[in-house]
Amino acid sequence: MQTKKGFTLIELLVVIGILAVLLTITLVAINPAKQFEQSNDTKRRSDVNTILNAVNQYMADNKGVVPPQITTVEQEISDTAANLCAVLVPTYIASLPVDPSVGDGAAIDEAGCAGTYATGYTIIKSATNGRITVSALLSTESIGVSR
Fold it and tell me: DSSP string spanning 102-132?
């Protein structure tokens, strides 16, 4: 009599079941959607600081004068509202950052300043103390950086 070597159907199903449980645990632990959301929020925080630093550099070069596009009314940094692109790009910033959820999320370079654009970020000058605040809407909250 010959004995056949191999796995039984039950053994294969048990191994597949164990692998499925391990894969599920790994996906829950990693949670790719949450990781992607956190990376976008980190980009937004960085972009807000970048825009505010560029505005401050503009003000330093212009004896503290705030760009006229920044008013005491909160408005989006775009071609139709606070049009800061031509003022800041390329002298104070290489390209104007764009929120990852707006369009393709690609930054606006000097050539893009001539066209229509929207960044997804807002800017306002305080009427009481003159501080400039750049804001972004994060996935869970709003962030604003003032100087």
Answer: STT-PPB-TGGGGS--EEEEEEEE-TTT--E
Side chain identity at residue 96, one-letter code: L
Q: Are 98 and 48 in contact (CB under 8 A)?
A: no
CB of 57 closer than 8 Å to CB of 94: no
CA-based radius of gyration for the chain:
25
Strand order in the sheet with 75-78: 75-78, 118-125, 132-137, 142-146
Name the burial class of residue 51, with classes exposed (0-12), middle (13-18) and buried (19+) by CB atoms within 10 angstroms of its CB: buried
Indicate the DSSP class of residue 120: E
Where are the strands (E) in 40-87, listed by range?
75-78
CA distance 102 to 70: 21
Instruction: Say if residue 1's pLDDT is above 70.
Output: no
Alpha carbon distance 98, 120 (integer Å): 6
- For the question of whether the overall pTM of this predicted structure is more than 0.85, the answer is no
Confidence band for 36, pLDDT divided at 50, 70 and 90? confident
Are 125 and 132 spatial neighbours (Cβ–Cβ below 8 Å)? yes
- Residues forming beta bridges with residue 125, ordered by sequence position: 132
